[in-house]
Amino acid sequence: MTALRWVLPPDAVSADALRLHEVPLRQPGPGEVRVRVHAVSLNGRDQMVLRGPFGRIPGRELVPLSDVAGVVDAVGDGVAEFEVGAAVTNLHWQDAPVPTPPLGLGALDAPGVLASHVVLPVNQVVRAPAHLGHVESATLPCAGVTAWNALFGGREVAAGEKVASLGTGGVALYAMQLAKAAGADYFGVVRRASAERRLRDAGAAEVVNSADFPQWGARLREITGGVRNVVDTVGTATITDSLTALARQGEVALVGLFAREPLPLDPMLLFGSGGSLRGVAVGTAAQHRELIAFMERHDLRPVVDSVHEFGDAREAFAHHQRGGVVGKVVITVP
């Protein structure tokens, strides 16, 4: 029996270079499960790995992507946690070691999940939410858990508080859904008028367009009186505005790595609000399970921007890279 997998050749930096390989179907070893893949999702970190050098080993090919949903189709010796036929997703990682967290599947020497079958350690597999299909479940491991950690892993968001996130990607949309389910008021920050309309239609209390208000942090603080949590999905380039938007004792959860310029940080922004800045690198296994329970309790369904077929993996990468994506980009595996 054989399996299919997309492979990024050594040192390739474009999705156009992806090649589809047929390989022998691997049997799970002791303590492992094999998952018949039904859906995988793309994250911003996958584009960073694609371009390198982030997450790449020179001269090494790589199976990309880190987030998968499917059905267990074989188990190794000693596995009692899952039976064949169980619907599962993967944990991005078990814990977040200090000072440098691992990068998850589909990076460095860890093969990814853009394949028909993957074999994983049993402690890196978790049951899928009971109310979601494979397409939606595939969005949880990185984007969903990151947003959960950002809102509930530090100063837990409560009803009546104000939350903001940047952009319309997977983490930002998860943050909106989780905040609203917790009873908080959600405020968005975007760059496009079309995205502004989408967020308003989705129930945002207000949306600030940074094209109209380059100092969007001050504008957000003006209209809200200060927000309790800002989920910063961009990086160091936006920290100043994120801190400016905070209410007293608020928190900025820095989850983005896309803009990493070493910009100066004005400590008075922290002293003035009594706020805090917390780095968020996805989350733990416990947080993943907490997210699943919360989503089941509130019947939350992730926002999916588009679904692509397995054979169109290159186009899925290209679509994800274009501006204007709202929610998650998913690839289904027949």
Automatic annotation (TrEMBL):
Pfam families reported for this sequence: ADH_N (PF08240), ADH_zinc_N (PF00107)
Domain Enoyl reductase (ER): 14-331
GO terms assigned for molecular function: oxidoreductase activity
InterPro entries the UniProt entry points to: ADH-like_C, ADH-like_N, ER, GroES-like_sf, NAD(P)-bd_dom_sf, Zinc_ADH-like
PANTHER family recorded: PTHR45033, ZINC-TYPE ALCOHOL DEHYDROGENASE-LIKE PROTEIN C1773.06C
Protein name as catalogued: NADPH:quinone reductase
Organism: Lentzea jiangxiensis
